[in-house]
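Why do we care about 3D structure at all? Because function follows from shape, and shape follows, mostly, from sequence. That is the central idea of this module. The next example makes it concrete: a single protein chain, its amino acid sequence, and then its structure expressed as tokens.
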Amino acid sequence: MSVLDSIAIQKILPHRHPFLLVDKVIELEPRTRILAVKQVTINEPFFEGHFPGAPVMPGVLQIEALAQAGAILILREFDDRASKIPFFSAIEYAKFRRPVVPGDTLMLEVTALRVGSKVQKMRGVASVDGQITAEAEILSIIADRPQEVTSDSQS
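And the structure:
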């Protein structure tokens, strides 16, 4: 059973297909920890070129998936989250341990190390069947989302 399904996730994150890399959240301790899932399918657009005949999920996208899970953990605490956008400010101690391939269920566990109103620091561990695939410490900044320019506001 999920705590947050894909519809609820899209109400929190600004990311959309094909760059939304979190399918559901199965555990959530507010401001502390999140456990989310990414179902890795052969239909992922990155598999077309990474690598033909031997598809592997890019490690940087595993880190991105961890960052998105961390953003869910943090952004859900903001009442004005629709006006916010998370940006990486640093990735530290990143390690890639094992390939992720089509058919894998990628578990995304993120623990908050520092939570502030603007700067967040988290530790993320991605795994498949209990084996670590990627890990990193992720720093992000929660910024105000730029206002959209409409044709009515231009003169």
